[in-house]
Write a structure and sequence with these properties.
alpha+beta, SH3 type barrels, two-stranded antiparallel sheet, elongated
Length: 201
């Protein structure tokens, strides 16, 4: 959901002109008279948002209602809380494929963590470890595409060095295939060691 300014029928408090309302803003400015005023509805009901947690990086919630930049009601696990617009990170479901190097949020056992995509297909995505100390390719992890969210604002989808990330993504996939094949061959070799003598006897 990009930040598109759409006319919503809300009037300027100074000149009564219709205000163009974008999402995630604390204040809006009238295009006619230049008056700045609090945004009446920074987020629409149903918008998914991430809320920073005390014990987890982020928790996923859904906007239930919005009566201004300091009165955004969010439902998290059937519990309702009120937040200010600056406390929330709006997110959207990713498309079928996400470009390598795109900044995303991925669900882990600790909550929703900021990371970026190494590779992606229609079913799953390979992402970097949430902890910067473990962001070597060895610690890359695979998550279901349903456990990935994109920042709603395109400007927040900061991309990294894409050619390098694309190379490491392909290399990681090849290494995983090689490891699986090697393990399968090892099992076959071990099985053959026990089966062949029995057949010969």
């Amino acid at each position: 959901m990009e930040q598109e300014e759409a006319k919503s029928g809300v009037e300027c408090s100074n000149c009564a002109s219709e205000l163009p309302l974008g999402e995630g803003q604390r204040a809006v400015t009238c295009a006619y008279c230049g008056t700045a005023q609090p945004h009446p509805r920074p987020y629409a009901a149903g918008q998914e948002v991430l809320v920073p947690g005390a014990l987890t990086p982020y928790t996923l919630g859904v906007v239930q209602s919005c009566d201004g930049p300091d009165a955004i009601e969010v439902v998290i696990d059937q519990s309702r809380s009120r937040y200010a617009v600056e406390s929330l990170v709006p997110v959207v479901h990713p498309p079928a494929e996400v470009e390598t190097g795109t900044r995303v949020f991925a669900r882990s056992m600790h909550g929703w963590e900021p990371t970026w995509v190494v590779s992606c297909d229609r079913i799953s995505a390979v992402v970097k470890h949430g902890n910067k100390s473990f962001q070597d390719s060895f610690f890359d992890r695979t998550v279901a595409i349903s456990d990935v969210r994109l920042p709603a604002r395109a400007a927040d989808r900061v991309t990294r060095d894409q050619p390098l990330q694309r190379f490491w993504g392909k290399l990681t996939r090849v290494m995983k295939i090689v490891i699986v094949v090697a393990i399968a061959l090892a099992f076959l070799a071990i099985a053959a060691m026990f089966i062949v003598p029995l057949v010969l006897d």
